[in-house]
Amino acid sequence: MYSEGMSTSDTSDRLIESTRELLWERGYVGTSPKAILERAGAGQGSMYHHFKGKPDLALAAIRRTAEEMRATAAGVLDGPGTPYERIEAYLRRERDVLRGCPVGRLTMDPDVIASDELRAPVDETLDWLRERLAGIVEEGKEQGQFAPGLDGESIAATIVATVQGGYVLARASGSPAAFDVGVRGLLSLLSPHQDH
Amino acid sequence: MYSEGMSTSDTSDRLIESTRELLWERGYVGTSPKAILERAGAGQGSMYHHFKGKPDLALAAIRRTAEEMRATAAGVLDGPGTPYERIEAYLRRERDVLRGCPVGRLTMDPDVIASDELRAPVDETLDWLRERLAGIVEEGKEQGQFAPGLDGESIAATIVATVQGGYVLARASGSPAAFDVGVRGLLSLLSPHQDH
Fold it and tell me: Which residues of chain B have pLDDT under 50?
């Protein structure tokens, strides 16, 4: 319940949260300004007070989702453990797998991808993630944990792709198990103890 | 141009093709029966003559897309070469990467995933692909090309996930290169010549 003394930043926040939910549930094309206002319990005037319109609101919603994902990933990647262990922790961290990746899923929304502005936070977040992972792989190579022939940048892309594709497999089968199987395969290939 | 002597199977076919295009461009929620009829140049009566409605037509469209993907993948996986070479050929086969996987993308459509009937052809196709790849990995293990400790089923899931996630990376960055980098990383991990 919102108090009567609700500030304008509360309204702005509720508009962003409602847009995030709707983008998630219905995609950009299925998210009407009317539905956003209804869900946020806000009037048209207050929306145009804070945002230029649906694209502007969608951008704020996507940015917030991207920031959250980055913070969650950093929490694991900057955590304790060897490079292999931190990559494993990232791959195995608890996820709502059947919902899909809040950021990755946006790449399958035709309207998001058609707009350079809406695509930018998605691209930047996945880029950041790959660079962070590439650094950890390089660290592991220096410590002799990964083979010197491996290329950090490529392995990082494979790690991110396995996670993103794992969501696809899980959603297709209706079960999170399919995600876990793909992760297990990647970890067996990355494992310093595998007997190649 | 369609001739006046157009048969009913031509109409059915055009309805299916129009639905495929629209599902691809606009998603299920954005695909109205009206838009399908307009694109197919067909009347409402002819649609209901062939199909029970939009869900039925969407199912026929998804089934056709799934069959095509299966035939394309089989063409490479059943081709010549060692197990590693066939997996490499599958990973490197020419793709319209920026469009995304016609089958995998459907898993990000909330309406497709909410329907067991529409989800089934997607699930079956990805399942078939994983089983086919798992068989090839097992073949490679028997031939000493892959480490005996690798599990065919998990590696197959990692391969499919890398491809599906590769589309996500490519679409996020607006460039097919991101797909190729992830594939390169996976191949370096799978390579019989890597020096682990």
Answer: 1-5, 195-196
Interface of B with A in 131-150 (CB under 8 A): 147-150
Residue A2 distance to chain B (closest CA, Å): 30
How confident is the model at residue A25, as a pLDDT?
Answer: 85
Task: Look up the ipTM and state it.
Answer: 0.91
A25/chain B closest Cα distance in angstroms: 7
User: Angle at which helices B152-173 and B177-190 pack, to 10 degrees?
Assistant: 160
Model confidence pLDDT, tens digit, residues A130-184: 999 999 999 999 999 999 889 999 999 999 999 999 999 999 999 999 999 999 9
Please name the member of A27, A147, A182 whose beta carbon is closest to the beta carbon of B194: A147
Helix (H, G, I), strand (E, B) or coil at A6: coil
Class of residue A54 by CB neighbours under 10 A (exposed 0-12, middle 13-18, buried 19+): middle
Which of A108, A159, A166 lies closest to B108 in CB terms?
A108
pLDDT at B9: 76
Residues of chain A with C-beta less than 8 angstroms from the C-beta of B149: 188, 194-195
Distance CA B12, CA B40 (A): 9
List CB contacts (< 8 A) between B123 and chain A: 172-174
| Dist. CA B134–CA A67, nearest whole Å | 37
| Structural domains of chain B, ranges and CATH numbers in brackets | 1-51 (1.10.10.60), 62-190 (1.10.357.10)
